[in-house]
Write a structure and sequence with these properties.
This protein is of the alpha/beta class and about 240 residues long. It has one domain (about 1-245): Rossmann fold (3-Layer(aba) Sandwich), CATH 3.40.50. The protein is about 35% helix and about 25% strand. An eight-stranded mixed beta sheet has the order 1-2-4-3-5-6-7-8, sandwiched between helices. A hairpin with a 2-residue loop joins strand 1 and strand 2.
């Protein structure tokens, strides 16, 4: 495997990005891997490596670069803790327009790196970034052929760039993995999302993982559920194999 940490020029600054892909057999189908709220950490880099080992060119950008932040201290569950308050501030400091601008910069790297195929492209996002994955699929309908939202939040809002609306503009196959117990994405929202996608004939699957909580796929979380996490990996590999190969 080849691993690179590079600085990518964006409209707002330099975005540190972890890139990993197989050493041989390229060029490889790209997968944009958008982080969750706790930010870049070795746990995410290991997940990027696992995906890349299946033959993908994986890009894991630091979306908090505008704040000059790379890795955060672990945040305890207490919402009043300074670490959790800081994490929430950082999460609120970015939005869909900013991350779509960052996506443009990532696409420019793909266009110039001989290790990466120019298309098709996959996108995935956990937690706060599920909405970014869907919006990226809508922004690049001729290039993104698969997008996964993994216990994504804010999937149905009144904003014009709400993921449930942008999903209608995507040509990608969409996959939504949802926890059964999730205060950030409650089941009533998930069911409304599923109905809306069906009503508008969006090529999408919404799957609820029984007995799980928000964050179940992260090995370092107390809510980690191994069986569900492995199933989510199987579903990701199946999605990308169908759409990117």
């Amino acid at each position: 495997m080849i691993e690179i940490v590079t600085e990518i020029a964006t409209r707002d600054g330099m975005m540190t990005t972890f890139i990993v892909h197989p050493e041989r057999g390229g060029p490889h189908p790209p997968v944009l891997f958008f982080m969750d709220a706790p930010g870049i950490r070795e746990e995410l880099r290991d997940m990027a490596r696992r995906l890349a080992s299946a033959g993908y060119y994986v890009m894991l950008p630091n979306l908090y670069y505008r704040s000059g932040v790379m890795e955060l201290e672990p945040a305890p569950p207490d919402p009043a803790s300074p670490q959790r308050r800081r994490m929430m501030e950082l999460m609120s400091s970015i939005d869909i327009p900013k991350v779509m601008s960052d996506t443009d910069a990532l696409m420019s790297v793909i266009d110039t790196d001989p290790a990466a195929l120019k298309r098709p492209i996959g996108v995935m996002g956990y937690c706060m970034s599920g909405r970014y994955a869907v919006n990226a699929a809508a922004r690049y309908p001729d290039r993104v052929t698969a997008a996964a939202s993994l216990y994504g939040v804010l999937l149905m809002t009144d904003a014009p760039d709400s993921p449930h609306l942008k999903a209608r503009e995507a040509n990608a196959e969409l996959y939504f993995a949802c926890a059964e117990r999730d205060v950030w994405a409650p089941l009533d929202m998930v069911e409304r999302l599923k109905l809306d996608l069906t009503d508008h004939a969006v090529r999408a699957e919404v799957e609820i993982y029984p007995g799980t909580e928000h964050g179940f796929a992260f090995p370092q979380r107390a809510v980690y559920a191994k069986a569900a996490a492995e199933r989510h990996w199987e579903r990701l590999h199946s999605l990308f194999s169908r759409s990117l190969r």
